[in-house]
């Protein structure tokens, strides 16, 4: 037993296990253990035209609300004040805000009417942008509801102050209305659908494609390396591309058929989804084979580690990620751009390549060129033994 515990490999193995456990703990839990919002963008639409009090004074509760909201803690929420609901919808379609609080034109007028014999209950609307990120949209909804609850309480207090000054009796019906003066309605824009893995289908498509193309890349790289003895030529490069296209098309077809026909994932345009799967798959194939062609097999652990570190962050809103993860990982990983492409297609009804090939397409093209440049890479001369010379 003493010799066993003196074996260096025992302690080297322990060190490797500690390193692996540390890497995977940070990769899977580092970005998720304490998700707190940082500058979560929420819009406030102020269409309120205000009202005139009997004493001649003008008041506008919408404008007052906008001023007060900007005084709140801005580290967790980034408030955007807009003038029209149309502007808010445009911002949501461009994935700029997770939710919008809409204060209508007659808000102040209807609030004042609550003290008259013909009251009209005012209402506000919260619009949530589900397609941007369902978790982020739900958090924005919670924040918006909390803000409007406080707003309601302030209005209630002001109404009771007005009643006290006017010295008028309060009926039971008026008391009920004043206790909750502003009703809140909720609407959805860019919905994720009922069968979309809670809006995570873009992330799932991205993860499946990356791993499937990685296996394809390793198989083709190994076959070509053995056939060419590590010396890349134009012919071997062409073979790699043709075989890669074949692999990716079949992989995309399998993913498409299983998700659409078997799992019944909600998709509005099936043809465009298949093309997108092939396009993203090819971009991933080019990225992976660029690393393999230039670095060789040591690139494989890098590709796998990139996947493990990036997987947990794909389903989270970037505003919920720790600063280190957001700044040094999320901003540049190719998965992020794949995710956005699938989101545009599945949730935002944007046509295929409506905004061009996107960042992921540019990365794919650059990778394709770098794959070809591997032909110019110097090849180490193989040592020839005495037996081979004879």
How would you explain this protein's 3D organization?
This protein is an alpha/beta fold and 390 residues long. Helices cover 59% and strands 9% of the residues. The chain has two domains: 150 residues, abc type-2 transporter like fold, CATH 3.40.1710; 176 residues, no CATH class. The protein has 15 helices and seven strands. The strands form two sheets. A five-stranded mixed beta sheet has the order 4-1-5-6-7, with helices on both faces. Strands 2-3 form a two-stranded antiparallel sheet. Its main location: membrane.
Helix and strand arrangement:
Blueprint: H1 2-6, H2 8-29, E1 40-46, E2 51-52, E3 58-59, H3 61-71, E4 77-82, H4 85-93, E5 99-103, H5 107-113, E6 123-129, H6 134-166, H7 172-179, E7 183-189, H8 201-228, H9 234-262, H10 270-295, H11 299-310, H12 323-330, H13 334-346, H14 358-373, H15 386-389
Parallel strand pairs: 1-4, 1-5, 6-7
Antiparallel strand pairs: 2-3, 5-6
Features:
transmembrane, 390 residues, 2 domains, disordered C terminus, DUF3533 domain-containing protein, T7SS_ABC-Transporter, alpha/beta, elongated, single chain, abc type-2 transporter like fold, two-stranded antiparallel ribbon, membrane, five-stranded mixed sheet, 7 strands, transmembrane helix
